[in-house]
């Protein structure tokens, strides 16, 4: 088992991973280890390290600091979405993107259907995975807790691999059911997907995770750029009120 985890982590990290399939389902069912709740270990190495050596209070303090660094990329990503909205060929989608960004900048938490309405934009120019510019890929990498200090070709390849792994995990988690997760597993799953869940009540975390899974499980492989952007779209205003 230990060897298989190492092989999978290496394969996923270097881009030669195959779809997790049964492996992911089995990991979710049988290998729940605290904060990692069975996700591939390269996705969250810092939590794997600190959970064994730090007190719960130290862990929360660390996650708050680390999330603050991650959150610095959020305005950058929203600004980019606003900037490229006029480049979207469909006028209706253009308006919808501009409207969504404006509402989010005023503190609105978007509804699932508002995000899914834009899925077509993330399959083609200018927001498709193969059309993302270097600065946007760096911002997305920071939001996903990945280093942005790589050449563009490697950033794109790793974001593709990362989004595919998350997508497969989401499908397996949806099949298992959020209700089967412990409180800590729910919070960890939310944190991995962009929400700073350390100070959010368990039920609100479960609600948010349900929204994430609804979006993720509706996406095709060609639309996974939306999954990366969803780290910001769905999490940035969740602690505020829906308007």
From TrEMBL:
Family annotation (Pfam families): LETM1_RBD
Coiled coil spans: none
GO MF assignments: ribosome binding
Occurrences of domain Letm1 RBD (ranges): 69-243
One Gene Ontology term, aspect cellular component: mitochondrial inner membrane
Main location: mitochondrion
Entry keywords, A to Z: Membrane, Mitochondrion, Mitochondrion inner membrane, Transmembrane, Transmembrane helix
Protein name in UniProt: LETM1 domain containing 1
Gene: LETMD1
